[in-house]
Amino acid sequence: MIEFLQFLVPGILIGGVYALLASGLGLIFGVMRVVNFAQADFMMLAMYLSWAIFAGGVGLDPFLAAPLVFAAFFVGGMAVHWLFVRHVIGRRENHDAQVILTIGLGLIFQNLILIRYSSEPRVVAPSYANDGDFVGEIFISRVRLYAFLLSVVVAALLFLFLNRTRTGRAIRAASENWEAATYMGVDIGRTNLIAFGVGTALTAVGGSALVTFQSITPFVGLRFVVVMFAAVVLGGLGSVGGAFVGGVLIGIIQSVSQVWTSAAVKNVWVFGLFLLILYVRPNGLFGKVQRAI
Amino acid sequence: MRRLVPFAVLVGAVALLDGRLDGRFHVRVLTLAIVWALAGVAWNLMAKAGQISLGHSAFTGIGAYAFTMLLRSDADVSPWIGMAVGMGIAAFLALAVGLPTFRLKGFYFTLATISFPLILELLVAHNGDPELTVPFHPENEWRYMEFADAHTYVWIGLVMLVVALAISALIDVTSFGFALRAIRDNEVLARAVGIRTVAWKSAAFIISAALSAAMAVLWVKAVLRVTVAEEVFGITVVIVMLSVAFVGGVGRTWGPVVGAAFLIPLAMFLDDTIGESVPGAQELVYAAALVLVALLIPEGIVPAVERGWERLAGALFGSSPRGARVRGVLAPGPRPTPLLRIARRPPRRRIPSPPATPVLEVEGVAKSFGANQVLSDVTFRVQAGERLGLIGPNGAGKTTLFNIMTAHLRADAGRVLFKGVAIDRMRAPRRYELGISRTFQVPQGFHLMSPLDNVAVAAIGASVPHPMKASMAMLERVGLADLALAELSALTVAETKTLELARAMVSDPELLLLDEPLAGLNETERLRFFETVDDLVDPQTAIVVIEHSVRSLIRYVESVVALDEGRIIAEGPPEAVVSNPQVIKAYLGSKWMGHARDQ
Amino acid sequence: MLEISELSAGYEGIPALRAVDFKVGDRARVAVLGPNGAGKTTLLKTISGVVAPDCGTMRLEGEDLGKLASHRRVEAGLVHVPQGRMIFASMTVADNLRLGSHRAAARDRHDERRELVLELFPALGGMLRRDGGALSGGQQQMLAIARGVMACPRLLMLDEPSMGLAPRASEEIFEGIARLSESETTAMIVVEQRAHEALEICERAYVLESGEVVLEAAAKTLLSDERLAATYLGSEI
Hints:
The complex is a heterotrimer of chains A (293), B (599) and C (237).
Chain A: H1 2-32, H2 39-55, H3 62-83, H4 95-117, E1 132-135, E2 138-141, H5 142-164, H6 166-176, H7 178-183, H8 188-210, H9 221-235, H10 240-256, H11 266-280
Antiparallel strand pairs in A: 1-2
Chain B: H1 5-20, H2 24-47, H3 57-72, H4 79-98, H5 108-127, E1 131-133, H6 141-144, H7 150-173, H8 175-185, H9 187-192, H10 197-224, E2 226-228, H11 229-232, H12 235-248, H13 255-274, H14 281-295, H15 301-317, E3 360-369, E4 372-382, E5 387-391, H16 398-405, E6 413-418, E7 421-422, H17 428-434, E8 436-438, H18 451-461, H19 467-478, H20 493-505, E9 511-515, H21 523-536, E10 542-546, H22 550-553, E11 559-564, E12 567-572, H23 574-578, H24 581-588, H25 590-598
Parallel strand pairs in B: 5-10, 5-11, 8-9, 9-10
Antiparallel strand pairs in B: 1-2, 3-4, 3-6, 6-7, 11-12
Helix pairs in contact in B: 1-7, 2-7, 2-10, 2-12, 2-13, 3-4, 3-5, 3-10, 4-10, 7-8, 7-10, 8-10, 8-18, 12-13, 12-14, 13-14, 18-19, 18-20, 19-20, 20-21, 24-25
Chain C: E1 2-11, E2 14-24, E3 29-33, H1 40-48, E4 53-60, E5 63-64, H2 70-75, E6 78-81, H3 93-100, H4 104-107, H5 110-120, H6 137-150, E7 155-159, H7 167-183, E8 187-191, H8 195-201, E9 204-209, E10 212-218, H9 219-223, H10 226-233
Parallel strand pairs in C: 3-8, 3-9, 6-7, 7-8
Antiparallel strand pairs in C: 1-2, 1-4, 4-5, 9-10
Helix pairs in contact in C: 3-6, 5-6, 6-7
């Protein structure tokens, strides 16, 4: 039992970060039906930005730098949307162009970073990086706890934004029924732009949360891409709340699997679960199954 | 013969290049261009059905590991046999991966493919060897595929590429290719005209996976020389496949050859010159290609050039290059050629009908969406040769009823029988094979195909003998022969509706379901439409028409069923139904009757 | 107020409107009648900019609508209550109403307008916290209209407000619309199948058939015009 808890608690903590990473992907899909394969590379870029802020003289703690990262990626995400993504949405059933555009963008980010910073792993180690506390017999790492708390705070702010602000409500309306939202006077082009910015920034802050215990390379995104997709699909494509629940569940499964199998293959569980969901409940744990007749 | 020209050009070009190149690097570039063209051709087979795979590195990984492990084993298996084994395993895995997603709508296939190579790579790296050296056997060149002369790999690669291209080109001209194009173009319609979409997608995926596994053996033997899990299962494999296929033309047989001819030399020369200082240069070429193609020419170079050439030829010679009489631009894509029937099915088994069994029986059908009861206890019958009209104001439940009859929706209660057989849960292709045809409220078409091919797909779906001939004959009967090769968008509304009818009738159905066939037609076109129907149908064919325009409908049908609030409020001969007070009330409002009486 | 001339439009290549001339005066209430598939919904969707016209002009108080994106037309005061209600099912009734106030001119008047719509449709009062999807068909229709009224429209377009509703629910809807026309001076276009109900609340009416205007008359005269019934059912009554 204790052994189980020793894996469960870190699973919940990392699951909170996955939830944050996935919520950005879920928001973007929900509002404009774009599966953004470059999402994990936004995370990677944010990790490099956190590292640059921390190691590059300013010395600002990545958790404290999170608002800066959010702002930078909100603007950056909107720029990417305006320059590239908006040209491949709206055309009906245009998944091909969306898939290759976002894959291509992700690849460009990876290789530009590779050229600038090489593939040498970078580490952000604040003074408390190895600290932690025992709660009973369970060790809780300080940085992972902070990462989880950061995720909770951002999740709460996102909830307030989507439910309490005019723009947030417009985004929810557009993701439920863009035509009806148009009749309300919602500018769909604008909600798409803002939703892409917010979605990018959410995942970026997820990167800030990870950076204190995950070493950074140009290709670190590849390790998280399926985790993010698994969380989003588990919670139901397009549902931001679902992506949160999905993220936490993925964190738990990944961590608890180590009770039975070695840590090296923990992601096999995640990938396998992802497939299983796609096969049996493609619209998520809470969604309906739609099949061709 | 025309189809053989590109093969000759390809072999000639490779021979010319191979004769002139002698530096190791140049031969390597040529070999890799061939290897990736082969990979792209394999990947593109799946794209012919509109399915984007991001997991083909699972198959290259399997191909590479299978032959390496067999060669390293005590059995000392030749790479040629190892290649065959790898192809078999890859094909089997493809079926296991693909099948569960092939019945789902949307891009679940693409999502599902992402995780397979990752799982395999993790398992291989953890439980096996992340890196396997390939034993060096210079003593027997052919048995071990171990050639001292690098040019030999070029020729082996060329043979494999030609075989893959031949398979792909053959698919294009058979009913297999028609089915894949139909699926890519409009999957719902493809199923409605009898195309067994799951089976065709599976077949394409199996061949595609096997060819990818074969390509991996050549890749490792000729270039890599060592089997590294990170590389053979890696995402880069997928990226290169995507780039060469999309740049050349997604789904097009010759697309990847064109894409590889552009991209691979460019990427490798960049890597050779500035690779030292700019480590990601090669990948940036692929990435930039993907982004540019997505934004500028999503269809790829081959179709774009083809289209441009046909425009030019049309402008210069006043007609298309092949002299077809066409309005608008000639539809892109392979032209109809005599079909090689590769999937011979026995002609459709019709249900032998006991005398006096109605063709269609709707029994006690009910349906609700949430709190809204849309249909309750709807019952009616249609006899052979009968024409029945289904009317009712907006929101009466007509479309819901039609969707239940065509199995797009499932009823909460009740049954739908065709000649005594329940069809309300039967899949679309099977219903079509039994002899039920339908049209759509918003006319559906295969927009990447000519009108002739649109009908031909339906003929293939119904296993009509000589489908191309039968389709052309059908177009002649409905007066669209002149437009047989036009682009679908060049047709007028009336022509589009007539084409829908031709497509529905080419299978000689026993039950024809028409969903608002008159929408968008003017008065004369409406009369002509029903004349065409009468001209085409067998006297025994039963017809059910849903129609908004009651005025036009009642002149055509023999009986009418009127729905309001999900219930049948009147049925019988048209004149009786439209003068029924209940019906007038439903259409004009409850107060109208009282008002009319006051007059 | 709204002036449309020679307007043609269609979906996916199927023409639904052919050279329609159509006018709404200041504070006028105009009914658009006609059988299913006559082009009534397309007319409204073209006015609100969801369907692009093939040709023709649309002017709102002299301003060319063709140049405005759909959300700008809402800002200009053109508010469309669509067919099939299209309420936001996963959002509460209160949030649905809030979205109704999305228009800049309506934002500051949210509370005042909410009181008004709850007077028009008292049934909504007790359901503010419920999800839109949990309402019955009639209540959803009330919500859809209420949501449109929240925007302080200058021209309110109602598309088939009684569609798919039982007689009692549809009566309640029309009562609400009648109360609205008493308390508000907004101009209105009412697209309806149930001709009588629509004619009772409007002054003028257009009858569409196969995308063309076949009749245009004062509501009172149409009430006794047999040609109207003929366009619906094709027979003399």
